[in-house]
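[Solved] Which block belongs to which protein?

Original post:
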Amino acid sequence: MAEASEVLMSVLSTIRVPRPGDRVHKDECAFSFSSPESEGGLYVCMNTFLGFGSQYVDRHYSRTGQRAYLHITRTRKAQKEDDNSSGSGDPPKKKPTRLAIGIEGGFDVEQDQYEEEVKVVLLPDRQEVTLEDLATMPDVVKERVSLSMTGLMSADSVSHALQVQQWDGEVRQESRYAPELKQLDNGVKIPPSGWRCEVCDLQENLWMNLSDGKVLCGRRYFDGSGGNNHALLYFQQTGYPLAVKLGTITPDGADVYSYDEDDMVLDSKLPEHLSHFGINMMTMEKTERTMTELEIAVNQRVGEWEVIQESGATLQPLSGPSLTGMKNLGNSCYLNSVMQVLFTVPDFQSKYVSNIEKIFTDAPSDPTQDFKTQVAKLGYGLLSGEYSKPAPDPVDDPTSNPEPRGDQVGIAPRMFKALVGRGHPEFSTNRQQDAQEFLLHFINMVERNCRSGENPTEAFRFLVEERIVCQQSHKAKYTQRVDYIVQLPVPMDQATNTEELQEAERRREEAESAGAPPPPAPRARIPFTSCLAALSEPETLTDFWSSAVQAKTTASKTTRFASFPDHLVIQVKKFTFGLDWVPKKLDVSIDVPDTLDLSALRGMGQQPGEELLPEVAPPPLMTPDVEVKGILGSHGNEEDDSLYSPLLSPVLDDSTVSQLCEMGFPLEACRKAVYYTGNTGIDAAISWVMGHMDDPDFSAPLVLPGCSSAPGTTPTETVSEEHLATIVSMGFSRDQATRALRATSNVLERAVDWIFSHLDDLESMEVSEGGRSAGESEGSREPPPPPGPRVRDGPGKYELFAFISHMGSSTMCGHYVCHIKKDQQWVIFNDQKVCASEKPPKDLGYLYFYRRVTE
């Protein structure tokens, strides 16, 4: 065996020193969830800076020939109790005083204390070189290797760089009203204590308006606590913008809120503004919790939603294959819940876990950026049981016997989350997200990466049949579209406890008029059969353009299944908009059944003797004072309009478009809403938006009927060859790529989104490059596959096998957990906690997953 110094000398040119911008993976293996804390530690390639667990480092060596690796191992230090310990065995923790993370006074980022050992390992013989050994080697070796080791250990790992290490929720801006705030000389003087709301006599959560000294109660919180909104209502009446929270005033400052700026603010003239009403800041003492302290209390109470998390019972922890917990990386519970359920589906198991060796063998040089590799890694981590081990007990006393909590070591899907969220405005952040939106996002990514070969999302894919009947001509139109999720409406008027709800509403109104806190509201109980009836009942279209009568009329639309998928996902539409356009969550209980028969909802297609509406496009939209002219083609001229486009450029009501945009809807969706409602006003446009928000091409550019290009382009416009090559490389034909680019004004990102939302149209196009030509198809003996996307079909009978529940007032906050049926036993997956479920709250779910029952 060669001396280590000789080996290092021979590979010295391959040993690199990390530079700014290099991606250093020193926390997680590229192929597994091994880390420096795992058995065997982590090996970091000193050339590529990729990390590998003990079982995968030899694979990397055999593929690349790279011999030098930095071996990092960490072992947990024994924890010592100090004099301030509570005696529970846990180290004392300082109470947070700031709404912040990772800075003085904020929430501590809990980091276990570890002993770390670092050395160089040379493959294939795994020769070890310590720092002591390095000191005896030639200077050129010692200097180069030492620089590389120091650079690797001091560099931020990729996972560390992706996390928000410091976050301060108390950074407030100076209010624009503070410097020139006008205060009324009304003689009002505020006493140092004994305050009450001047409307309802509430004695807590009181705010004094800094313009006139009015003392009123604060906002009502989502759970019914807090105030009665009188301070807010007073601002709406008077426009006086600033208020200070009484009880928080100290010589150091106070809570100041700007209603117009809708945020906590700084008031540099606060002592002057308070003294106007006889308040001396230097003598005031704090008697109420600040808004920061209230927010901290809320953040420390995560996990109090008892029913969904089954917190009231001592749940039995579970471990083993398919029972692996996932660490919460900061509001990543939506991702954890969705992926736990997806890897219960056999299609995903066979695609990614059964083929894991081939996927890893075929992985590119940087597997951390390969979709298949990272999905397979996650699937194997969840199903293998290798990481399904109890979390180490922080209590060192062997005589203690704490209650089982169900926490596991689990897996931390950092690489996976970074990869699937890359470039996405929401999923790339640490904010809470909608689990349903993430499910569709992930399905879309799988579709893009499975253009050829086995596609596991086919398990969820189904066809929807829409039948529209013109009420004037009684002729029908049939269309089909692809979908993956059934969105189940919640008819609140069908509640079985209507009298209880009405009585609660009466008591609430009485309490509000009396200025008292509202009583707890009961939960509406909605029969599942009523939700299903609302899904299948006909919808009336008031502005339907009928090609039979060549005019707008009313029509009825019914929606049915054209096929039934192997696995059916049902989303309960609990989230809606109030009259003020503020999102709200419906507090409902639905008796979701364990078994489901949807056979009666299968579409039957064109009925005997039924006439179809003619395939004629509606006339172009124009205002009466617009002369009918075409659009000049790319080779047209004023004298010869033979190449003019047959369609007119739509004239849209800009004010209606602007109003819709101000409500937060995408510009292209607003343009389509105004176009398809014929410039008939904001109400009709809003109705169109609300009825089409779930369309896959909701935000796609407006494409006029009969034209494959977006406004402002022509069918003959030249498309980018580079963009064409990119889309063709994803498995689409040149014709399909050209059509997508022309429909999206040559914008690659929009073209990719467009092409995946129009798969049913594109699949029927003639296959050109990369597939069979039309001539080959005609000459071949095998008939061509049917046009349209590939869907599975079978009986419409299902059984429930999983559901995802949401806790909180909005999908943008709160917490997700999932329940999955394993061997006839319901199991709750609550991030790292995996336990046997005793009372699965099936009536409170958000997403339900059914699988087909075969006779």
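(Second protein starts here: sequence line, then its structure tokens.)
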Amino acid sequence: KGIIANTPKRLRDLIREIRAAKTAAEERAVHHLNSNHTKKRHHPPSRCRNVAKLLLYIHMLGYPAHFGQMECLKLVASPKFSDKRIGYLGAMLLLDERAEVHLLVTNSVKNDMNHSTQYIVSLALSTLGSICSPEMSRDLAGEVQALIKSNNAYLRKKAALCALRIIQKIPDIMEMYIPCARSLLNEKNHGVLLTAVCLISQMCQLSPETLNHFRRLVPNLVRILKNLIMSGFSQDHDVNGVSDPFLQVKILQLLRILGHQDSAASEQMNDILAQVATNTETSKNVGHSILYEIVLTIMGIESESGLRVLAVNILGRFLLNTDKNIRYVALSTLQRVVQADYNAVQRHRTTIVDCLRDTDASIKRRAMELCFSLINGQNIRGMAKEMLSFLADCGSEFKADCCSNLAIAAERYAPNKRWHVDTLLKLLAAAGNHARDDVVVAAVQLISEQSAYQAYAVHQLFYYASQDFSQQPMVLLACWCIGEYGGGLFSDCCADGLETYSAKSPEEVLGLLEQALLSSQSRQSTKHVAVTAVMKLSTRLPHQEQQLLDSIRHLAAYHCTSSQLELQQRSVEFSAIFRHHENIRAALLEPMPVMEGRAESGRDLPAGSGAAAVASGDSAEVGDEVAAAAAAAAVAATFESLINFDDSSTGGVPNATIGLPNAATNSSSMLATNNSNSVAGPLIDVFGDLGVSEPAPVSEASALPALPPIASAGIAGLQLSLAGSRQQSNNVDLIIRAVNLGDTNMTNFLLQAAVPKSLQLSMMPASGDCLPPAGGSVTQKAVVTNPNGVSALCGLKAWSGLKGLG
């Protein structure tokens, strides 16, 4: 009984019990019982091997087996090869450089590396390469170097791989292996050559000095590669008719490293690369792997133009292969090399476009990305037609990216504006609700800039929106254009003398806006634009019929009780205009000015802007544009001289103009003069416009021009003043002072400021949040840092209770 109790369970029995377990709980119970038995028993050396096998199997199942590390060390110290084999295997699985018992195995490894049996030395080298730490690598680096010089090819191969692992841990000791690695290139044994090439590649990647040293060995590598492709059949190295493809691939990778940005080294390998590319068997997959490495090597070095064309043609042949993996690799590689030889890739454009019809989704995506890289000014019409066809039939996962990228390409390479407008509208129609907001913004930008095609665009958009109301990006754009250019719908339109569109009745146009405003399919952003469009349409009707105006008034007030704050605010303010400010409604709702242009390349399209940005541009603050148009040039110049750190700007206030706010942003440029002849005068009661008085004198010599006091009609009695002084070369201190000239107490006072992204703004705490009547004041300091010395505008907004002054 004692003998049976001390005998550990055999591995075969443990496997049988675990397989018989029907649940995970039963399996854990078997493991727990066996682990406890292994921990508590003292096993004689004859049983350690079986115990180690049990522990390794437990470790492979994912259960903790660290308590068996000492059993593995006992087997490593055994003189028997069978014990050492299991012990070293357990050490490689159960030990790492963080384990405390890791240092105990160092001495055993060192002793075994000097053993007379090559297989025991091989076990020690394999273990060292697997679990070596920096300390262990330094201790045994000399033994590894000696084994690299051994007469045994089997040990030289193992030692070279172990040296590769050591220099990854400690690059400082790389120099001791350079002579050994160079001598290994003269080996006849392919296994040793393979490890030598791997070792040299790692050295070149870690050290530029070593890279320059090994560039002198390019002729040796070329000779080895030439012998491989020119040698006859060898049963030991032949793989499907190719001589040692593994060694060929590694040599090509090393040549790519050595020839990168080095014309002399590249020149030495041009001929052999062409020879390998033309002599490699392409009927088997092993040949494709070598050709793939040939392509990467040619594109990675300073190769000749003819070689680059040859590499692209190889990838073109890959595209015709029936294997989906090879086609995917070809498309991915062409995407990487398209900038290196654009014209050569263009020759395979037809084959690439055909890949768009592939059933594999990954191939479709790679082909789509490559097609956009191939678009230029000469093929934009044909490629746009192909991509629109693909967009109409592709899955939903492709539509958003395809739509945005094609919009960018159309903006960059459009042959004319009419074609650009048509393409964007077709894009939105084909992409449907998958179109991103940046495409809508691009369409708004384009239509606002092209006055000759505004009537044509609004007719087209009315048609598209009427045909399919579910496409919300198209409906949103249609509502915006109807609000701005809806007057063009009430007359016939002839586009470029080719197409004629009949006039639409006001009832039809108003019906579409009503559907957009009331439909449950409409997004919130669409409703925001629709209610503004309804309001603006009231000034664009051909005849101001009372029945139509009543319908518009009803639609404008429909969402006065909406739970959506932005929509409710618009409806309330528009209703107030109808009730109390009918005399200025036409001036308020004038068409928006042309939006500021974006980067010509189209690559700067904002990814997150879009419907929300368009909606905010048509926000309830419809008087902002009019107020900004009447802004005083002197105030703008004062702000510019305050932020600009050019000394010449302090000598006087130069003449300057203030630009209109961008329709796609909420730029706050609402400083206006109190001119009774301008449109801004009647707007004061509704939107709280600002008046500008005479500028305050500057008392200090270092002070910058001060902002004239700003009187608010929105917050009665509130006046703001701004003064600045330069403290450092790039810093300006701004002192903002708010004065209550009225007879009521102002509470919860808050001041906000904004500067462009190129500047840095630091706001200090205000002196208080309450402004007593009749002269009570609050001051606040702000520090503006202008590292680039550019001219900029600063925006201020003051709040008291629920009233705001911009």
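Accepted answer:
You had them paired correctly. Confirming on the second one: The longest strand covers residues 703-712.
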